[in-house]
Amino acid sequence: MKSSAKPVLATVAALAGVSTPTVSKVINGRDDVAESTRLRVQSALDELGYRSPAQRRSRLTGPAMVDLVIGVHDGAYSMEILHGILDYAANGEVDVVVSSHTPNKLARVDHEDWAQRMQESGRTGIIFVTSEVTSAQVLAFSRRGIAVMVIDPLNSPPSGDFASVGATNWAGGKAATEHLLALDHERIAFFGGPAAAECSVARLHGYLAALMSRGIAARSDYITDGAFTRESGAEATRRVLSLPEPPTAIFAASDTIALGVLEVARERGLRVPDDLSLVGFDGTPLAEQTLPRLTSVAQPLQEMGRAALRGVLRLSHGEQLDATHMELATELVVRDSTAQLRS
To answer: β-strand 147-151 against 188-191: which pairing, if any?
Structure first.
């Protein structure tokens, strides 16, 4: 772990090859410094283990403070993540501040101003849940000493710029599809989340790998991108059930998408699983509350929340994580929504 002793500004300036006033500007988050210069100064600050006055005050006067930003409005999923974070926070002196930002809102926020306000209020770190994060956004926080973690990022980390926590999405997608194949289903549809969402893409690739291992060609009319919402699942279901040869089974990339499938199946007079088998993903409490109970790939959502908070606290202390991206194992939980294909 790096020393937390404060180096004099002149030492930082000498190491970075800049003037002392320039170091002061970088420390205070001023924007009238060239990016290349800011990076040199920040590198010197990191090497010398410098922490801002706000960070030092927060460590001396009270518990660590972490912001939690939820980017996708999926209540069951988000609540499981939140339970894990609060459970870990309760075991230590950590305060968690929760806010919600849609992807459009997050893109419009002035991150420099946001990061500055967090620094001034003594924040320790920030955790994004299912959000698309850019290098510029991460830099705005990191150069003010605010650690960043992302749970289920919607994009790949740019050059490893931020640490993230997720699940074994590819393996989970493959397990879900193999379960349906073992029940003799071959006409299997896939309903995904946003096309650019890394977790949804990995689940799709697991689905495709399982089909390929059986020598079954994937059908483009069975594959749909959308959103992790009930409405998206309902819309996709209406479309595929109108095909001349509709699927006999559906793999939904979230439990919430699966709710939309169940809704339309009831509208059409189809019985799940007698007429249509269905697998979800996430393993939220919704899976036990549906009728029939939903077969689902369970993510360790609470443990993902705990791991994210644990990681952001370690980063805020200047520690190195064992891996930039952590993947926790998924598990297929078979319930009542899947059955052997009827002749």
So the answer is: unpaired
Q: Classify the phi-psi angles of 155: left when phi > 0, otherwise alpha if psi is within -120 to 50, otherwise beta.
A: beta
| Interatomic CA distance for residues 259 and 299, integer angstroms | 17
Nearest-5° angle of CA 91, CA 297, CA 187?
Answer: 165
Buried b (16+ CB within 10 A) or exposed e, 280-293: bbbbbebbeebebe
Length of the chain: 343
Question: Which residue ranges make up each domain of the chain?
Answer: 9-47, 63-166+301-328, 169-299
**Reported pTM:** 0.79
43 Cβ partners below 8 Å, 6+ apart? 16
Structure tokens at 101: 């930002």
Which CATH number among 3.40.50.2300, 3.30.360.10, 3.90.1150.10, 3.20.170.30 corresponds to the domain 63-166+301-328? 3.40.50.2300
Q: How would you write 159-220 as a 3-class SS string? A: HHCCEEEEECHHHHHHHHHHHHHHCCCCCEEEECCCCCCHHHHHHHHHHHHHHHHCCCCCCH
Same fold, 63-166+301-328 and 169-299: yes
pLDDT tens, position by position, 70-125: 876 667 898 999 999 999 998 877 889 887 666 566 667 787 888 888 888 888 89
If you classify domain 169-299 with CATH, what class do you get?
A: alpha beta
Cis peptide leading into 273, omega within 30 of 0? yes
